[in-house]
């Protein structure tokens, strides 16, 4: 339906974009403010795609009159220290800054008046049996003889209820405890509409919350096919305006095909939920609970391999897809399981392929569509998933729309682009060969959704180019569109720097340019190796929820090869870092053989086998030890660095190894605890760490402990050593 999507949590003075979903470009759409706090004077625009800015704290209802009926959207506004200021950004995250030379703003910095950053939030849902006394609060108004299986239990133990529990967590720098945080729940307006349309009681009228505000309960009788609940944590630091977390969301879906239906599968399944809230049986409805913002389960142990398609195989015109397919077995043998291909669509001739001229056909210089589909199938046959590089911000200037619209005010395509006063199209930086699409145009939105429908069924996920430049209302719609078909479809954003709000109903995995930059600084000798732990800590400090995941890389098609800039020794340690820190590691094609050229043809015949062997071992160790993956805990440990000469009695290291070249940390999960030591120096280091550990390096399989002149046991490390912590 055309409903504009999930509720919005905003600060006063913050603007969000409103857009009908699945739009009909010929349809009529009208917005209005249905309800607002008493002192509000906020209004909404008249265009089909418009903006809304709450001016006082409180709850707003925005109405949309669309071809499929009238819809309501809840906006909850919180007080803001920048109240009354024109703050650009949908839900605080739409990056459309026009005041800084068209460059993206550093949204990794605290907004507003600074101070302590955002808290974090997690929601979990289950289905439980409620109280048996009296009529169910919020139940349908039926006689006792007419009550459905939603409303009664055959064994008298109670009536089924949807239970949503919130776990708020203070910011790492906050003086507040978890008990000091407030929780705000909102039931999704779309599910309210569905319930009321079926003659059920409005689930908002039927719900009740616990005294501490951490738990929400809704009778199953008030749920149609689905109930989605969204929630935020609110922190009121002393002397500061409230800080609001990234929203989390859960869904409870009926899986029984209707009230009272009973078959062999009639049970409750709590997918992605540690609590087993199963109820079900001949007289009870079946439900499935889903955490809507969790990444696909397969990303927990994924390793991404980026292919710059036009030089990876260095083949003649039309042969590239087949040549890449021929190399799939060797890529799979490396241990990677996710293939990211740079754009494969028709383009303007630039080798990177991001200037697209036809969004519905593959580039003829790469091969035929059948060849592309065969490549994807070959990857699947070798246990690899494939990511499609989706470009939603712009077209090439050679696109037929632009060619008709340029310098032609009467063109039917004119309003599909952004235009500057000079008559040139909107663009970013010095990119003269592209033109920014106008996402306020329903034809553009319809077109991009059709592109999504064309390619999503063939692949396992999208890497979304320039995600910061596309309105968040579009990304929210895209997520719902693909996830409703396949919960395991991956959405990964290229947003530099990363933005916590992009994990709020938009993306699963985020480019970690912060860690990338810090690893470069360490490799250059500018910052100490310990600073990479600060880069990881920043994720929570700026408000990313704990369930967010991050793409960790040291090079890609836009960047100089790490070894060229920082040397082989630092490159080995940096490569090990992305496999031992919590995140999703990525290898850029050629990185695993010591390639020096950024976009040159891969020098397969001159591969450095030692480099490939090192990456194979790192991938294998990470796969064998989930504590090294995204869900493992990361903790700092005390450590002391000596040079490679174990006979000396060092106070401060000397020679070719400096203490700032080395970092040690601990990774752990429920099953094991590991200590990791990284050495960016060109010579081996000897490092004592503040935990008892085994004497064997899991990466090399060799002994790694030496004893220095003082009798202290140290881990001897060239680039990386991983040892088990004893006593677990």
TrEMBL record:
Residue ranges, compositional bias (Acidic residues): 130-139
Domain Glycosyl hydrolase family 13 catalytic: 306-622
Listed Pfam families: Alpha-amylase
Transmembrane residue ranges: none
Basic and acidic residues bias (residue ranges): 140-154, 251-278
SMART domains xref list: Aamy
Classification via InterPro entries: GH, GH13_alpha-amylase, GH13_cat_dom
Gene Ontology BP, a term: carbohydrate metabolic process
Region (Disordered): 1-30, 82-178, 193-213, 251-285
PANTHER family named in the record: ALPHA-AMYLASE FAMILY MEMBER (PTHR10357)
Protein's UniProt name: Alpha amylase catalytic region
Organism, as annotated: Halorubrum lacusprofundi (strain ATCC 49239 / DSM 5036 / JCM 8891 / ACAM 34)
């Amino acid at each position: 339906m055309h409903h504009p999507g999930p509720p919005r949590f905003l600060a006063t003075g913050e603007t969000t974009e409103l857009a009908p979903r699945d739009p009909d470009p010929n349809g009529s759409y009208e917005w209005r403010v249905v309800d607002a706090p008493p002192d509000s004077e906020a209004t909404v625009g008249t265009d089909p795609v418009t903006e809304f800015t709450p001016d006082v704290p409180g709850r707003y209802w925005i109405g949309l009159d669309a071809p499929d009926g009238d819809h309501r959207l809840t906006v909850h506004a919180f007080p803001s220290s920048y109240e009354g200021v024109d703050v650009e950004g949908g839900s605080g995250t739409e990056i459309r800054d026009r005041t800084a030379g068209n460059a993206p703003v550093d949204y990794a910095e605290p907004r507003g008046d600074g101070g302590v950053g955002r808290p974090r939030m997690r929601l979990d849902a289950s289905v439980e049996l409620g109280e048996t006394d009296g009529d169910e609060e919020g139940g349908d108004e039926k006689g006792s003889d007419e009550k459905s299986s939603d409303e009664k239990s055959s064994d008298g133990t109670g009536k089924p209820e949807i239970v949503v529990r919130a776990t708020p967590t203070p910011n790492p720098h906050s003086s507040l405890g978890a008990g000091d945080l407030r929780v705000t729940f909102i039931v999704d307006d779309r599910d309210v509409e569905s319930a009321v349309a079926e003659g059920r009681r409005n689930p908002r009228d039927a719900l009740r919350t616990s005294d501490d505000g951490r738990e929400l309960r809704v009778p199953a009788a008030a749920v149609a096919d689905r109930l989605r609940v969204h929630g935020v944590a609110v922190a009121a630091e002393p002397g500061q305006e409230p800080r609001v977390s990234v929203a989390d969301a859960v869904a409870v879906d009926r899986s029984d095909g209707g009230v009272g239906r009973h078959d062999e599968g009639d049970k409750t399944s709590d997918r992605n939920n540690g609590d087993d809230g199963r109820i079900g049986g001949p007289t009870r409805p079946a439900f499935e609970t889903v955490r809507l913002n969790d990444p696909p389960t397969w990303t927990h142990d994924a390793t991404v391999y980026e292919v710059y398609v036009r030089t990876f195989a260095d083949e003649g015109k039309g042969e590239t897809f087949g040549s890449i397919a021929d190399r799939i077995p060797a890529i799979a043998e490396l241990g990677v399981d996710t293939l990211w291909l740079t754009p494969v669509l028709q383009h303007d001739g630039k080798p990177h392929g991001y200037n697209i001229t036809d969004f519905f056909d593959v580039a003829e210089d790469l091969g035929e569509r059948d060849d592309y589909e065969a490549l994807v199938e070959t990857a699947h046959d070798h246990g690899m998933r494939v990511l499609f590089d989706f470009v939603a911000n712009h077209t090439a200037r050679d696109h037929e729309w632009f060619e008709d619209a340029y310098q032609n005010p009467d063109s039917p395509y004119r309003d599909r682009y952004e235009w500057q006063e000079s008559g040139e199209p909107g663009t970013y930086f010095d990119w003269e060969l592209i033109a920014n699409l106008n996402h306020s145009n329903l034809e553009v939105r319809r077109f991009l959704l059709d592109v999504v429908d064309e390619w999503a069924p063939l692949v396992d996920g999208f890497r979304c180019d320039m995600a910061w430049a596309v309105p968040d209302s579009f990304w929210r719609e895209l997520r719902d569109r693909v996830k409703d078909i396949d919960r395991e479809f991956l959405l990964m954003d290229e947003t530099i720097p990363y933005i916590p709000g992009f994990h709020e109903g938009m993306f699963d995995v985020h480019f970690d340019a912060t860690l990338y930059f810090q690893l470069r600084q360490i490799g250059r000798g500018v910052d100490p190796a310990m600073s990479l732990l600060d880069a990881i800590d920043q994720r929570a400090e700026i408000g990313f929820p704990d369930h967010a995941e991050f793409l960790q890389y040291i090079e890609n098609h836009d960047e100089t090869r790490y070894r060229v800039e920082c040397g082989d020794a630092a490159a080995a340690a940096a490569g090990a870092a992305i496999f031992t820190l919590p995140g999703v590691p990525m290898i850029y094609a050629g990185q695993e053989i010591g390639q020096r050229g950024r976009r040159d043809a891969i020098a397969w015949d001159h591969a450095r086998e030692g480099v490939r062997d090192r990456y194979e071992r790192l991938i294998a160790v990470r796969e064998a030890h989930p504590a090294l993956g995204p869900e493992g805990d990361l903790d700092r440990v005390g450590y002391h660095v000596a040079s490679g000469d174990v006979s000396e009695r060092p106070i401060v290291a000397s020679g070719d190894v400096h203490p700032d070249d080395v970092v040690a940390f601990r990774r752990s999960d429920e099953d094991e605890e590991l200590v990791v030591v990284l050495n960016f120096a060109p010579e081996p280091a000897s490092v004592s760490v503040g935990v008892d550990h085994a004497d064997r390096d899991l990466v090399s399989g060799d002994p790694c402990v030496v004893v220095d002149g003082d009798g202290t046991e140290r881990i001897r490390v060239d680039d990386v050593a991983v040892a088990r912590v004893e006593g677990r």
